[in-house]
Input
Amino acid sequence: MTQVVDPGTADLHRAARQMAAAIDAAFDSLLAAPDDPRRRLFEAMRHAAIGGGKRLRPLLVKATGDLFGLAEHSVVQVGLAVKAGALVGESAELGIRPAATALELVHTYSLVHDDLPAMDDDDLRRGKPTVHRAFDEATAILAGDCLHDLAFEILADPRTHADPFVRCDLIRALAQSSGPHGMAGGQMMDLMAEHSPFDLPTITRLQQLKTGAIISFCVEAAAIMAHIPPEARTGLHGYARDIGLAFQIADDLLDVEGDAELAGKALQKDADAGKQTFVSLMGVERAREQARILVQQAKAHLHEYDMRADLLRAIADYVIERDR
Output
């Protein structure tokens, strides 16, 4: 029997493959290892960053950029400058790729630190040894620090966007979503969850910070680059909030029902640590139904957009259909 492939799914998988290849190429160039005593540090960063991973967050930046006609990669002339006594053209990358690369650097740094013995103490990530296992703990800490720093170096670079106010807004938005009011704050709550019984509202808040804040930056980044005013971003924020929670519920379900080999990491660690999750508090079937409801809500937030939002809709469906 011939298998029928949904065109939307095919487009999603194609876009995901293209984004993964683009991000890996960017990392390969950015993290070229020097021939000096820093080489081990760069090798650790490459180990963490290149290969594996869903690259879902950069894909969300691209999909949101599609709404506003932002190219994935576009180098344009933005003016003239004097360099070495000569008048030369200045260029900027006005596409979404630099911001997507910076975002993925922050996400990767968070995984390196999250895997450390002081945090989750994991041995496997994306199907290969975690950085502190492949190298050592001190190198892993430095590698995570440097991945984080490089992200903001990219966003501050004039080649990322010609408008300095756009660059400042991108830096502020990523700092807010990854710091104490975002991902890092959520990670602290996650550590406290091992010692305190959290109820459903607290778990929801934890995940909105730990997972959802960075996902919100994905749509925010494209809106910033497209000069969309804050009051016109409400639907995008609603979409990001709902798929962020749906993504985490799906993760909790995979932690209970998934295949560790497909996931490329150890499963059922939250239960072993005594942490409350959406699944432990709601049960498997109720959690699965809640994830479906959140995905439908997320897609409803895109009602003002036509087929330009098809990739965002496909990503929302993928969030709860994935097996890793």
Q: What stands out?
A: The chain is about 65% helix and 5% strand. The beta strands are 75-83, 86-93, 124-125, 128-129.
